[in-house]
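User: I'm curious whether this sequence folds into something compact or stays loose and floppy. Could you predict its structure so I can see for myself?
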Amino acid sequence: MRELLRAWRKGAVLLGREQWRLFHETGRFDKNHDVDKTTFASVIGAANRVQMCRWQVVSQLQGWLSNRANEFRDTVTRSSLPPDVKRMLHTVNLMGAWFSRKELRMWGTGETIPPEVRKLARTIMRHVMSRHRRPDLSRISMRLDYRAASLAAPTKATQGGKVGWWGNLSTMQPGRKIAVLLLTYDHHARRPGRATNSVQVNLNREGKLTFGIVTDMGEVYAKSLADDDGHGVLALDFGLSTLFATSEGQLLGQAWLKRLKQYDALISMIAASQQRAGRKPRNSKRYRALVENVRGFLRTEVGRVPNRLVEQGKPRELVLERLDFRHPDLSQRLNAILRNCGRSILQDKLRDLDERFGVTSTEVNATYTSQTCSSCGYVDQRNRRNQKTFLCLWCGHKLHADLQAAANIDARRARPNGWLFQGKATVLAELVRAFGERRVRALRLGRTGSRSAPADPRLTNPSFGGVPLAVVRSSERRKAFVKSPET
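Assistant: Here's the prediction. I'll summarize afterward.
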C-alpha cells in the first residue's frame, strides 16, 4: 500500500504539470484531458487509477484557483478603475477566462471585451497567483473509488464492535488485492450519511498509514435544507477571551481561554526543554501530540458553538469580522499555531453550515467596532475600559465589551461591502462624520474618568481632533515637588 501511495503522489505531480500547461494554453483545467495514455499509466498503473488521480488533482487545483478568483474580485473592487472597466474585469473573472484566447462578450449587452482589458485581467491574475504557492501535490492523499476499493461488513472479526469494515484495495501488482481491517470510532458511528465504496489513504505525521471512508452526505444535506426554517441575521464577535459574542446578547465559550493557557504552558515547557537539549521541538513526539490536541480542541470548540447557534435560532445569515487568532496573554508559539489552523477550521465550518442548512456568512471590516458606542455612535478608545467593560463617555451606555462589538458588527453589514476594503483612516472619518450628523445629546458631560478632563470628551479625543491629556507619572510628580533651594 505504501508503494501504491508513493506511485500515486509521483503521478499526481506529473498530472499537475500537465494541467498547469493546459491552463495557460486554454485558460482552464480539464479533468477529462486524457491524451498521454502511457506515461501516467507507467507510473500509477491501471488506467482507472490514472483517471481517479487526475480528477483528484483537478479538484484540488480548482479549489486553489477559486480562492485566487476571490482575491481577484477583491482587488478589482477596491481599485480606482472606471466602473465600466471594473464590470468587464468582473465578467472575465466570473467566466474564469483570465488566460482564455477566445473572444469574450459582456453578458446581456453582447459588447466585446477589448484586448487591453483582457491584458489587464491577465496581469492582475498573475500578480494574485504569484503571492501564493501552488498546491503541493507531492503530499496528496490517495482517494480510491469503487473501481479500486470495496467495503464489506465484518462477520466474525468484530473485536467487540470496534471493527467497522473490511476494505479490499487494489495494489501495484495487477489482479492482486489486500484486505485492510478498518476500526470505527464514536464520531464516525454517529455521523449521518451513506458510506460509499471509496477509501482515502494517507500518511500521518508519524509516518503511519491512515484510512478513511468517504461518506455521501447529499441526501442528508438536502433534507436539512428542506427542513430549515432559518430567518434573520446574527452577528458574531470573535475573541480568545470569549469565543463568540452574538448580537442577541449571548456570550459563548467564556472558559476556553483558560484551557488555551494550560496548553500554552505545556507547549512552552516542552519547547524550552527541547531547545536546551539542542533539539528542535517538532522532533519531540510529546510536543507534536500536544499540538495535535490543540488543533483538535480548536476544531471542536469552533464547530460546537456555530452548531449550537444554528440549533437554537437557525439564522439565515451570519455576519462575522475578519478573524485574528491571536491573544496578548498567549505565547508567540501558540499564537502561531492558532493563526495557522484557526481560520481554515472556521472557514470549513461556515462552508459546512452553508451546505447543510443554507446559512450564508458575510465578512465585514471590524475596525473600531470595539471602541464605538452602538447607542450613540461616539468612537473613543477610552470607551472600552478593560477587556470586558464598555462605557460610553458621551451617552453613558454600558454593556459587555464583546456584546457591544457584536452589535456594531451587525450594523456594519449595512455598509457598502461591509467596509471590507476601507482603511482604518477612512472608516474613522466616516464614523466621526456620522456621529456629527446624528446630534445625540450628551448625558454624561463632565464625567470622563479624569479629574482634569474638560466637559466635552471630544476635546481630548484625537479622533475628533482633540489633544490627549498628558499622563503624569508618580515619579514625575515627586521630581516636580522637590524644588531647588532657591525656590
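Summary: The two ends are 91 Å apart (CA to CA). Confidence is low (pLDDT under 50) at residues 444-454, 476-487.
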